[in-house]
Amino acid sequence: GGAKCKSHATSAFSLSPGRPTGRSSGRGVTFWLRSGAFPPRRLARALGFTNINIMNDSAIKKQRYQDLTREQAFGLEARILQRMFPLLLPRESSNTTTIHNYFRSLIDLTYLLCEVGLGNKSVENAKPQGKDFHTKLDPKMLFAEHSNPAASTVLLVTDALGQLECIRYLDGGLSDWDRKNIDVGNLVAGGAFSLSNMGMKEEVFLHPISNDCNFIFAHRQETEPFLSPDFFSRELWPLPGMVFPDQGMVPAFEMAIFEDWKTSLHNFGLSGIVASYDDLLHGINLIQTHKLTKQQEKTVINNVTLNFGNGSTFTGPLAVGENIKISYDAANSTQKDDLRENLEEVVKQVSKLVEAIESDDRKNDISTQLKSFVEEAKKEKPSKWMMDITSKGLLEAANTVAALATPVSVAVKSVLSLLAMAA
Questions:
Q1: Alpha carbons 92 and 263: distance in angstroms, whole number
Q2: Three state DSSP letters for the chain
Q3: Whole-model pTM above 0.70?
Q4: Suppose 193 and one of 149, 223, 381, 423 were both cysteines; which one would form an S-S bond, judging by CB atoms 3.0 to 4.6 Å apart?
């Protein structure tokens, strides 16, 4: 890693699957402990919680970090790094000055990422500092073995910020779009993997990040391509379903991980680092000095961003977005499983096509054809004439965007095949 630029990372970490988690029904606090590492029931009783129930691991929704702008991705990484501090447990043999310099640099990097996320500092202007941090945050042999995945992936952020291209991702043939913001997914995986190595469920780390992403997607039209100060002022560790919203950290995490980290730094004589981190826990109050231009304000007002249940998204004019949403809802409500899945795929691919088309009039035409195609296809007896007209319109439009010609064609023809209608 570091200045020699020999860091490597795969596009996905092999995360430990863990075991089902427990959640107390008595006082609303969630315990996320992996079986075998800590005695969750004993710990729960000690804290006064009873009646631990099984919680479904599928509660975490997979996020699409490639749908973020680069500025939003850096802002999100600032929040992720804040949560990674307690996962970075120094070796007892580490040098005090080196540990101090590392954490001071990590705090400075966090604030720099916030500034980029807010638009107060451009990505290009942050590039020299990114290169500098890439050297300063080389973990070397500073941390305990279970902390290494988290410490190593910090360099993915500095590599992206400094535009160094030192990190080589084993992407397995990912498309250019899916390679976008690839550092974010790997940073998340590194933190979750370290937490798993410490004996706790990855969901402790993943849940707050999922909340961050949901906040960005819900408010992005207001500040696109940046983030608002409100994004950074929120609690760092809230979890869905918590009865006590002022609870800043999961009790089990606080007792098993956070206290060990603070004790370790106190032993190094670095109480100041702990105090600085405590200031970050309840959010950072920042000022956005960057102001949207009139053209950006117009774009924000006229555009809408939609996120669908199958992972697809759409950003574009409001009227076009309404057609896309109607199309998706119609596809999603189709009773036959195979037809529903294929119609959802058509909506997904045509949504990308509509985004790629520059003319707003063409966007509207194509989205209208999509709506007619889906609504007709789900009828008990679809009109062959209507299916022929709408499918040809979609295929002709797809041929104008080379990268989407095949995906749209395959999706449309799959539906026609199910309906026994030739393309």
A1: 12
A2: CHHHCCCEEECCCCCCCCCCEEEECCCCCEECECCCCCCHHHHHHHCCCCCEEEECHHHCCCCCHHHCCHHHHHHHHHHHHHHHHHHCCECCCCCHHHHHHHHHHHHHHHHHHHHHHHCCCCHHHHHHHHHHHHHHCCCCCCECHHHHHHHHHHHHHHHHHCCCCCCEEECCCCCHHHHCCHHHHHHHHHHHHHHHHCCECCHHHHHHHHHHHHHHHHHHHHHCCCCCHHHHCCCCCCCCCCCCCCCCCCHHHHHHHHHHHHHHHHHCCCHHHHHHHHCCCCCCCCCCCCCCCHHHHHHHHHEEEEECCCCCEEEEEHHHHHHHHHHHHHHHCCCCHHHHHHHHHHHHHHHHHHHHCCCHHHHHHHHHHHHHHHHHHCCCCCCHHHHHHHHHHHHHHHCCCHHHHHHHHHHHHHHHHHCCCCC
A3: no
A4: 149
Q: With 0-12 CB in 10 A as exposed, 13-18 as middle and 19+ as buried, what is 192?
A: buried
Reported as a single tens digit per residue, the pLDDT across 251-263 is 778 888 999 999 9
Q: What is the pLDDT of residues 263-274, one digit of tens each?
A: 999 999 999 999
